[in-house]
Structures are given as C-alpha cells and as structure tokens.
Amino acid sequence: MGLTKATLKVKGRKGARQIELIVDTGSVYTWIPAETLEELDVPKDDFVDFTTIEGRRVRRPVGEALLGYNGVSRHCVVVFGRRGDASVLGVTALENLALEVDPVSRKLRKSKALAAYQCQVTAKALARLFSTM
User: Fold this and answer.
1) Which of 24, 50, 55, 108 is the most exposed place for a label (fewest CB within 10 A)?
2) Regarding predicted confidence, which is higher, 32 or 131?
3) pLDDT, tens digit, for every residue of 58-76?
4) Residue 119: what pLDDT?
5) Phi/psi class of residue 107: alpha, beta or left (left: φ > 0; alpha: ψ in -120 to 50)?
6) What is the pLDDT confidence band of residue 115, given thresholds at 50, 70 and 90?
7) What are phi and psi of 78, to 5 degrees?
8) Cβ-based neighbour number of residue 125 at 10 Å
9) Which of 128, 96, 130, 122 has its CA nearest to residue 111?
C-alpha cells in the first residue's frame, strides 16, 4: 500500500499557491508549512495541542484558509506546520470538500455519498423541549 498525494490550491489574503499534500485520513486537520501560510497571510486564530504518533505533545497555531481541489473551494482549519512536520490533507478538509480516497486507484474522488442525519421534530416536541429550559 502506498501513499496518496494530492495537489490543492491554498488561498490566503495575499494570494494563492498550489501545494502537494499527503492524504491522511487519520489526521483531523490539514497541516501546511507555516512559511507558506504566512506568505499567503493566513491569520493565526488559536493554538491547539496535538499528540504525535511517538506520543509527544506539540502545540501549533491554527487558522482558516480556503482550500481548493478540482474547482471546489471551502474554508478549512489549517495547522501551521514546523520544519519536520508532515504536510498532510486531513479528514476535516476531505469532508468539507466532499472528497474521499478511491481504495483501488488511491486517488481523490468526489464522495459518492455524504452522511445525512434527519429527524422529524414536531411543534409539540419543541414546545416541550423549550419549556424545560
């Protein structure tokens, strides 16, 4: 089994750039080198603690960038990676972009079906819910 790589467009306030990322469905967020995100003027919104596969704790800044693939663009959380951090496309961005990995070709494709949750709520049920608050 090999790695799946994909080239995505990353857009910030000062332009856009194509970047190759390893598709990692085990990573929640997308990791992009901090230098790239800073050059594109992607703002840092917060800091998040992560646990590496070696068990180390690391803290990295995160922000939101516009990621694009095959004509579809969505805002996604991105981690400002440091030297030595892998550049990966995480599962949140995959879902935001409605993409999945084809298990045979190991290439990205449009998701065949997205999870949808439906429930029917009646006015009576809503009234009961809000009367308990």
Assistant:
1) 55
2) 32
3) 999 999 999 999 999 999 9
4) 64
5) beta
6) low
7) -125, 145
8) 11
9) 96
Fold (CATH) for 5-131 = Cathepsin D, subunit A; domain 1 (2.40.70)
Where do we find the tokens 């429930």?
Answer: 119
Q: Which amino acid is at 99?
A: L
Quickly count: other Cβ atoms within 10 Å of residue 6's Cβ. Answer: 17
- Domain residue ranges in the chain: 5-131
The residue written with tokens 């180390």 in the block is 56
